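FYI - complex with heme C, inputs then prediction.
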Amino acid sequence: MRNSFVLFLAISVFIPGSVAVGGNPEKGLQLLLDKAYLPADLDQEVFDALWTVWPEPLKSKAEQASTAERREMAMNRYGLLPHPSDPSRSMQYVVGSSGNWTMSCLACHQGQVAGTIVPGIPNTNYALETFTEEVRLVKIAQGKSFGHMDIGSLLLPLGTTSGTTNAVMFGVALMHHRDAALNIVSRSPRFDLTHHDMDAPPWWHYRKRKTLYADGFAPQGSRMLMQFLLVRENGPEKFLEWESDFEHVEAWLESLRPPEWPTEIDTRLAGKGEPIFREHCGHCHGEYGENEVYPETVVPIDEIGTDRVRFDALTNKERSALNESWFGHFGRDAKSIGNRQRPLGYVAPPLDGVWASAPYFHNGSVPTLWHVLHPESRPPVWRRTPVGYDTQKVGLEIEEPSVSWFAEAVSGGLPSAQRRQYFDTSKPGKSAEGHTYPNALTHLERAAVLEYLKTL
Ligand code: HEC
Ligand code: HEC
């Protein structure tokens, strides 16, 4: 696997204007890679024994492998990537001196495209639920106590399709146990949450947007970035202590730039696509090139027609509670985004580097840009190859089993680790419908727009 990470870091910190006030991007990345903010999830001994609970023939293969090979097999199984300074461990978990592994933001927010690690690209291989399940089995075998993820995953689903997670609802579940100043209040757990999986967006959007999330209800800010740290072990004092760390993390996010399409572009065809894009897409997605414009348009939910579970899963009361809390400086930050804190639908995201951030839509239901442009041909069930990239359709290389084959496999007892590799658009929160704007174009026009999208 090519690792352009270190090189990219060296370049990005020297881009003028890329440094946020008060933060140092390089320091932000170091913190993300090396500082643990949560209680540990597992230790090295557990990680090194994970193969013992794998299915055959993988288990026998691992048994015969060296420790280093086995660690690599484990990282591949769970969608983890090598740490830039120590490839024997994962960059998504901070490993302390005692060998404890702690999940970091990079678990969901640092992945690869076509086998290349690009800074800020979401981790669309992360098999969080499978990892947690197997860690739990090994802990039982080793007589070790459960951590917060082991217990949490018994109460709520972590992610029913690999590469996507129920992260938004973790946040709602955790916020339920805090007051506005983040003091821990004892309340009985909520069992009325609408669990659903989301595809994390690329972090290089951060410099363009004013708000966060698919519905854009929260203003950007270094405090808002800290929600993921709301576990019981972190009291309000920890948030104050770590606030300055997240100014550096925010500077890292702001320093990121989208990756460039790695091979040739048919510039004549892309040139034809540009005016078509401007006419049919630009008023929502903005203008690119010399004079960048990004309107951050919110499209009403019935009009956009993509899966609405994410939109309905949060109430305006929950949205306000977050904005009125410490994370939003007790309502001060939300003033800068006006009525966006009570959104009507989803934000049209920036399309910079969009070739690299497949799968598409907030729920990750559409594997390639060609499928975004051909709504009637979107696959109902699909599975990506581990790191394959489809340069023709521009996005993930996939297998498309027939719906009846898949239904039979599931009822025949397809093991859950395997089932999670398939994206089943018939499940709640996973619809690939909607966003039918490309239907106004001829097939030739769509081919031109597809070529143009590679240039962004
Ligand atoms: C378990 C996976 C997971 C972890 C861990 C995680 N995130 Fe996220 N993050 C997500 C998902 C999913 C979204 C999309 C949520 C939405 O749009 O509603 C998201 C959204 C974001 C966004 C908004 C991006 C945008 O363009 O809207 C930022 C910024 C962000 N996360 C930063 C962080 C930081 C910083 C951390 C660590 C403190 C972190 N995340 C930890 C999954 C995760
Ligand atoms: C009326 C506003 C609007 C128009 C017009 C529009 N889009 Fe979108 N687009 C959106 C919204 C909103 C989303 C987010 C949908 C979601 O995530 O559920 C989106 C998502 C996308 C995505 C997926 C981005 C990602 O990172 O997941 C692509 C690609 C895209 N649009 C391309 C286009 C193209 C090409 C056109 C013109 C043919 C177009 N859009 C026209 C509003 C629009």
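The CA atoms of residues 155 and 191 lie 9 Å apart. The radius of gyration is 22 Å.
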